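task queued by scheduler; priority normal; single chain, no ligands, no partner chains; default sampling; output format set to structure tokens
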Amino acid sequence: MVVQLRKWCAALVLGLAPVLACAQAPVRIALIETLSGPLANGGEAAFRNLVWATERVNARGGVKLAGSPRNLQMVRYDSKGQSEEALAALRAAIDDGIRIVMQGNSSAVAAALIDAIGKHNEREPDKRVVFLNYAAVDPVLTNERCSFWHFRFDAHADMRMAALMQVLREDRSVQRIYLIGQDYSFGQAVLREGRRQLALLRPDVQIAGDELHPLGRVKDFIPYATKIKASGAQAVLTGNFGNDLTLLVKAARDIGFEGKFYTFYGNALGVPGVLGEAGVGKVVAVAEWFPNVSGEQAQAFYRSFRQRFPRPQDDYVHMRMQLMMEALAQAMEKAGSLEAAALAQQLERVEVIVAGHAGSMRAADHQFQQPLRVVLMDRQGTPGVGFDAEGSGYGFRVIRTLAAEQAEQTHSCKMQRPLR
């Protein structure tokens, strides 16, 4: 494909048509994500958000490189949620001439990509790759395993947990809590930090259960929900996402569990519709942004997303992905190049704002810094819930906002920058 494009461009140079068509070839970005299997809904949600972000950049003329406008184009590679498949996809993307990679919905996959990209960039400095991460939130990725080539635009798990704890520490109705998560690096990190922060902030709360389950392989969560209810817990703390979260809360509802869910991702991908009235006042979630954030800019931003993707099941907008694409466009123009090291040097210092939501990259560890918000599920139309989620009639109102400096945490990264 790349060879054919080069031959076509060379032919244009020799003909009457100038090289303008070649100069305007789109900048291709590889999305390496779970696009099939039980967790594919999360991958498709990421793809929609990234496509929308590129469309907005392209609508204003694209990215200007060497004086010529270039559109952005997402190219899909299915990792099937597996590290080996993701590594094969990375090799395919590099062979296709792509030098910008995006991924997020698995910290284990992200860790494998960071390692592989680091080795590739050292081995082939003329074909170096930069990696933008929008959702892989294991804290080690910007701490012990930080990389000059990797940039995370989502708050990591410890940051999200600290925001949730701002609410949980004041929730005196919770005296017993059940910890459950997916059995891989991210899920393990969530429960580990949950235990640590509970001991510090709510030592009076008893952990009624603490377990991990296989990632994306459990079809029936009734046995887990039965244990949760039998434990006497008044709340569940989980980092589960995708179908692993939807099926868990559905099972809990089906057996009559009436406790709360403190979640990282409980605001979409089927959860509001599954719980319905049973979730009112009981589902807590945390992220950088939600549709019911106040302000006309935020509301107009969300309306435009719903106009672009009107199906209820597509209603899951990620502000961090919009900021990430704006950061990439800014870095490209300031670098004046698509070379990975030049891009990385500019990405280290980006400051971006979309619909009133601002953030900046911390150069020391490549962890993006931005406000975080905690929300509570409620009926659409109640104060603070102008928009519902996924056409369910239920939405989420903001109950706590942390400024970027409040959400920020220390790091242990020892960044190794390339010599050239």
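post-processing summary
- Residues 1-23 have pLDDT under 50 and may be disordered.
- The longest strand covers residues 394-402.
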